[in-house]
Design goal:
With 347 residues, the protein is an alpha+beta fold. It is built from 5 helices and 7 strands, in the order αααβββαββαββ. It starts with a helix and ends in a 6-residue tail after the last strand.
């Protein structure tokens, strides 16, 4: 999921860079168009103003020439005939027209020159702006490429890191499984050794009891007192001793209901397994019970956790469990005790 997210971020950044590049080029185009229009309008106004100035100057010169000619003709009227005066006026008008035509032609040439220079300047500016836009686009493309390469490198590094972490976790799991296996084997060996020692002690005890019975029998016979049969002695001992139950090969005293006394190795099946806090509270309180030792805490299987304990002296474990705050109920099932924990909501 993390790799997919990184790829999405890279795509978004690349798409954003492309959109920014397109936007920059579009802005350059708009600015260029505005510059063209403003320059054209400025040049047109400048050309019109220049043409108007030239024509105005030409008209003024023409009017001055005509006025001068009229004044000259007036002065010469006394000396020349009317025809001569008219000829002078016509000539002056022709010269004035010629001056106006020349001035108009010169104004048109000036306007054409200004417009040509303006077009050249505009083309130069357009080429410059286009080149700058192209360079900006190339820089953006390069940045996008570098960003993509960096993202690919980061993703590759993240994959390698995940692979290394997975190897470390796998190695840790293998070590943990090995430790658990060794611990289980050790507990099993200890249980077997405990059972063997218990069996040997039981056998030795029976031998001692048998020898004692034999000596007692011989002494009674020597005294001439009646000797009880072996069956009677066994029955008497059974009446004195409490009833016993077998718990995985160990002997336990039995009483009615919750007062049953347990001794030896016993397994507790604890449910539910999801409440870790309650489980830890129960284990802590089990460790505080005198003459009780936790041998093994198994992993959760079928929504229950199996805890193996060893009881050195007879204990009413069922009654003790029911009094514990984390326990909702405890019942005996076959040779095990089923323990139901309270949930967090029922505390």
């Amino acid at each position: 999921m993390e790799e997919v997210s990184q790829m999405e971020e890279v795509r978004d950044k690349v798409r954003q860079e492309v959109e920014d590049t397109a936007r920059i080029i579009e802005e350059y185009k708009q600015k260029l168009t505005e510059v063209f229009e403003k320059k054209k309008e400025s040049l047109r106004k400048e050309a019109e103003q220049e043409s108007a100035d030239i024509i105005a100057r030409a008209k003024q010169e023409s009017e001055e020439i005509i006025a001068e000619a009229k004044e000259r003709a007036k002065r010469e009227a006394e000396e020349k005939t009317k025809l001569e005066v008219e000829r002078i006026i016509v000539k002056a008008e022709e010269e004035s027209t010629e001056i106006i035509v020349k001035a108009t032609q010169e104004a048109e040439r000036e306007v054409s020159r200004i417009i040509a220079e303006a077009e050249t300047e505009v083309e130069r500016m357009a080429a410059k702006v286009t080149e700058e836009a192209k360079a900006e686009a190339e820089r953006s493309t390069k940045a996008v490429t570098e960003l993509k390469q960096k993202a690919e490198y980061d993703i590759k590094a993240a994959k390698e890191k995940i692979r290394q972490e997975a190897e470390v976790v796998a190695e840790a799991i293998q070590k943990a499984e090995k430790i658990i296996s060794v611990a289980r084997n050790k507990v099993q060996e200890e249980l077997e050794e405990s059972a063997r020692v218990t069996a040997e002690a039981k056998q030795q005890l029976e031998q001692v009891i048998g020898a004692a019975e034999h000596e007692t029998k011989q002494e009674l016979e020597h005294r001439g007192e009646p000797v009880a049969s072996t069956a009677a002695i066994t029955e008497e001992r059974a009446e004195i001793a409490e009833p016993v139950v077998m718990v995985k090969g160990d002997v336990a005293s039995r009483k009615a209901g919750d007062d049953k006394l347990y001794q030896g190795t016993l397994e507790l099946d604890i449910t539910p397994t999801v409440d870790f806090v309650q489980m830890q509270r129960l284990l802590k309180q089990l460790r505080q019970i005198p003459d009780l030792q936790i041998l093994l805490v198994g992993g959760p299987v079928d929504d229950k956790t199996r805890v193996t304990v060893f009881i050195a002296k007879p204990l009413p474990l069922l009654s003790i469990l029911k009094e514990m705050p984390p326990v909702m109920d405890a019942v005996e099932q076959e040779n095990n005790i089923q323990v139901v924990l309270k949930t967090g909501a029922s505390n």
